[in-house]
Amino acid sequence: MLEVHPVEPVVVVCHADADRCDEIARAYPGAVRFAPDEVLVIGTASPDPALDLAARVSRDAGDEALVLDASDGWAGVRLAGPSAREAFEHLSRLELPEGGVVLGDVVRAPAVVTTVGPDVSILVPSSFGEHLRARVLERCRHLGVREVGS
User: In what order do the strands lie in the sheet containing 100-106?
Assistant: First the structure.
């Protein structure tokens, strides 16, 4: 059984000098370097204002950095269950890391893919969100796919 969960990520973009971006990338497990002066930090929402990701990144990046909450620009799914990695093979030619992040094409959409344990999360620009969901359901039908929480 493959479960497909919707993902509503918190995505924060930080533009700063390369050294500061290096510091942010090391400090946040969900950080992805896009360019020498740009880092994307991916997290989850928290009702506690002290845990607000954009505020924390802004504080850590300092006054010289530009930090933006770009969450509205991203959508995604989380593949869960013992067949999650097998399912991903039907969606992309990317090689999944054991734990971490990979960037590239997933069902013809630019994607940020993260793995934690057996689960695979796929984030795409929000304009590709429905395309991603539909292709996952179509291409993974043979794995007994089930949508959860949609």
Answer: 100-106, 109-116, 119-125, 74-80, 2-7, 145-147
For residue 132, the number of C-alpha atoms closer than 13 Å in the C-beta half-sphere is 28
Measured distance CA(122)–CA(144) in Å, rounded: 19
DSSP label of 99: S
Residue type at 65 in one-letter notation: A
Q: How far apart are CA 17 and CA 34, in angstroms?
A: 13
pLDDT in tens, 81-117: 999 999 999 999 999 988 888 999 999 999 999 998 8
What pTM does this model have? 0.88
From CA 96, how far away is CA 80, in angstroms rounded? Answer: 14
What is the three-class DSSP state of 16?
Answer: coil
Domains, the chain, with CATH or none: 2-7+74-147 (3.30.1360.120), 10-71 (3.30.70)
Could you count the other beta carbons within 10 Å of the beta carbon of residue 57? 24
* Cα 65–chain centre separation: 22
